Amino acid sequence: MAASGCARRPLLLLLGLLHCASSVVFVVKNSNDTACIMANFSAAFSVNYDSKSGPKNVTFDLPSDAAMLNSSSCGKENTSDPSLVIGFGKEHMLTLKFTRNATRYSVQLMSFVYNLSDTHLFPNASSNETKTVESITDIRADIDKKYRCVSGTQVHMSNVTVTLRDATIQAYLSNSSFSRGETRCDQDGPSPTTAPPAPPSPSPSPVPESPSVDKYSVNGTNGTCLLASMGLQLNLTYERKDNTTVTKLLNINPNKTTANGSCGAHLVTLELRSEGATVLLFQFGMNASSSRFFLQGIQLSTILPDAKDPTFKAANNSLRALQATVGNSYKCNAEEHVQVTEAFSVNIFKVWVQAFKVEGGQFGSVEECLLDENNMLIPIAVGGALAGLVLIVLIAYLVGRKRSHAGYQTI
């Protein structure tokens, strides 16, 4: 028996699952019985799904009898990355896939497979399908250090949110145990052993030309669910290898970009894969009560060769941008600036977008953005002022002329 009332039992694959009421420890080992991944955390799941009585949300925890599956692996150099696959309940699976560079490692991708036929977790579900969702994450740490996050770490994956609590995670282990050194998550603040240095002022990079505007569409079983025309520019702030902080603008080149996506009842996704391993994801949600769609989330994964950490990732799933009534389209000729995180924003040029209800593959009635409406008011106001000035001058001229005639007598 282990401490704290936890019991260790053998697994079919590599050993390494410790059962606890509040958290679970997983260890992935290779054929030499050397650990390559260790993870200790509790997890909570929040899932939105369609029930026979309408949309429903359920929350549940990772159970203490969750087991590491045979598909967990230490990976093979240059061919595959290490991964931790956890199974529980009725064919539900949580996967953490790792990657690394010279200085840091990260959970490059988290995915969750859930079975809607599990009536215990998804009562009265409208289908018995098995769904898969995935997302990039901000879970990263220095090589030979463990990732530590006491605060909740949330990963948003389409209609699913996974929250890891009191997490200690490490991959690419050097001695089959957690390292003493640790990299703390942003939510916990700076590590108590080191004071954070004052960040240098970002040095601007050359400003590129405005990006090319292109048209994108996403089609589902019921037809087109997203139509968009826009130019996209990424605004990134990061630390270079020489410890200087820079801000770089990168245009998305439509000629070197492939578009994909998915259609859902409450979420529409547009995925753009561009040159340089750049993946840009737009998620559009719907407010059922007001029948309005909006840009809900943006996720980015790209490679910056000159950065101290070349893998740049950012995500925000609580946005409220590009809003319009379902059935209508949102249009803005002015440049839109959407702040995703402190280090990442997107500049959107000449956007015209419509989500969910797109009739005949054509944009619906236009709802202009506030910026365009303000730009229209300026020339109208100036024109009105000039017209008033001309009218005042004309009246003054006529009054003056009348007075000059009244000053003469007929002889």
Would you tell me the overall average pLDDT? 83
Main sheet summary: 9 strands, mixed
SSE arrangement, N to C: EEEEEEEEEEEEEEEEEEEEEEEEEEEEEH
Distance between the termini: 131 Å
Uncertain stretches of 5 or more adjacent residues: 1-22, 191-195
**Strand residues, percent:** over 45%
Q: Give me the count of strands.
A: 29
- The number of helices is 1
Helix content: under 10%
Overall geometric form: globular
Output the structural class.
mainly beta
Description:
The protein has 411 residues and is mainly β. The chain has 1 helix and 29 strands. The strands form 4 sheets. Strands 1, 2, 3, 4, 5, 12, 13, 14 and 15 form a 9-stranded mixed beta sheet that branches. Strand 23 (292-303) and strand 24 (311-316) form a beta hairpin. The model is unreliable at 1-22 and 191-195 (pLDDT under 50).
